[in-house]
């Protein structure tokens, strides 16, 4: 159960700060997808943690690239060792346990063709794209981090649990993110032309 695994990770967080390196060490290589899922949780609730979007988005990109290349991850020390406020992060993760717990009851192995080779590489490539969307500097715009985070979370839990339905939902989340960002870009363009005219 994903919620039980996430709870055990939260209970292992001690002190005032936590680094991504410690989370990775706790999860191991098999937990790279879990770390990607954890990185999405702060963006699913209305709590702002400064600097998290860039750090976690970059981590998702690099971890997904490692999955795509089927090798152990390499992350810059700047990302691995950046101190995150554990006192702000833990409550967010606790709320994330509830969200993941709701997903647990729906997850089951099905449509496994979407979670096995060669689709594993394609799914990893989609995760890389999702991480880049999450890193977009649009933090002040409503849902600009939430929409890509939902797509990443659905895709990662689908890959972890071999659930092709959730993988498809993750694809849909990424498509909706591109549409949403496209609408924002169009509105900015129209607004800019209006101001200039």
Automatic annotation (TrEMBL):
It comes from Comamonas aquatica DA1877. The chain crosses the membrane at residues 31-49, 125-144, 164-189. It comes from the Bacteria. Pfam families: ExoD (PF06055). Keywords: Membrane, Transmembrane, Transmembrane helix. The keyword Membrane applies. InterPro entries: ExoD. This is Protein exod. The lineage of its organism: Bacteria, Pseudomonadati, Pseudomonadota, Betaproteobacteria, Burkholderiales.
């Amino acid at each position: 159960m994903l919620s039980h695994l996430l709870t055990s990770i939260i209970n292992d967080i001690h002190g005032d700060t936590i680094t991504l390196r410690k989370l990775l060490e706790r999860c191991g290589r098999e937990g790279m997808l879990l770390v990607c899922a954890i990185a999405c949780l702060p963006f699913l609730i209305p709590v702002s943690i400064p600097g998290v979007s860039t750090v976690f988005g970059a981590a998702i990109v690099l971890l997904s690239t490692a999955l795509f290349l089927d090798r152990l991850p390499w992350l810059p020390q700047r990302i691995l060792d950046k101190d995150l406020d554990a006192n702000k992060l833990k409550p967010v993760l606790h709320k994330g346990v509830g969200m993941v717990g709701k997903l647990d009851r729906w997850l089951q192995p099905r449509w496994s063709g979407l979670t096995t080779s060669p689709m594993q590489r394609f799914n990893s490539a989609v995760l890389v794209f999702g991480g880049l969307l999450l890193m977009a500097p649009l933090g002040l715009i409503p849902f600009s981090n939430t929409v890509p985070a939902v797509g990443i979370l659905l895709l990662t839990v689908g890959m972890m649990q071999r659930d092709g339905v959730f993988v498809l939902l993750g694809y849909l989340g990424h498509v909706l993110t591109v549409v949403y960002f496209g609408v924002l870009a169009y509105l900015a363009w129209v607004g800019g032309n209006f101001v200039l005219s």
